[in-house]
Amino acid sequence: MIPKIQLLQQALASLRVVREPTRPGVAAEAASGKREAGAPAQQAEAHRLPLDEEIRRRAAAIDKDDPQRRRRLLRATLEICLCAEWGDEMAADPAFQALVDRVQQQIEGDPSLQPVVDDALASLAPPSFP
Questions:
Q1: Predicted model pTM
Q2: Looking at the domain assignment, is residue 34 inside a domain?
Q3: Which among 19, 98, 109, 125 could disulfide-bond with 59, CB atoms 3.0 to 4.6 Å apart, if both were Cys?
Q4: Range of 89's domain?
Q5: In three state form, how does the secondary structure of the chain look?
Q6: Does 95 map to a domain?
Q7: How sure is the predictor about 9, in pLDDT bands with cuts at 50, 70 and 90?
């Protein structure tokens, strides 16, 4: 079984190719997981919590009785991971929000991903998940 973090890294690498299609060598960089020095995510890296801590913090802010809790937690996870990859300033961009919407719709629309997503969310937001 592929570790959850490796799945996340593969997803981010795929999105990196979509986000940066004109930069030379992006496909090789995405495949290797390497980033250009000074990239926005690296510049902000010192100022952010580890991803799992940030996700847990956001999960704690979602009411445990909220019927949309799973959806909200998935969205928060996507936003946090993508902002970590591309920089926090992306969160305010309407195009970024539209991208998160599309990614979430794709994930939610694929029944084969539901057990993986549920397992990942449970591992990031225990014990209050689902």
A1: 0.63
A2: no
A3: 125
A4: 39-124
A5: CCCHHHHHHHHHHHHHHHHCCCCCCHHHHHHHCCCCCCCHHHHHHCCCCCHHHHHHHHHHCCCCCCCCHHHHHHHHHHHHHHHHHHCHHHHHCHHHHHHHHHHHHHHHCCHHHHHHHHHHHHHHCCCCCC
A6: yes
A7: low
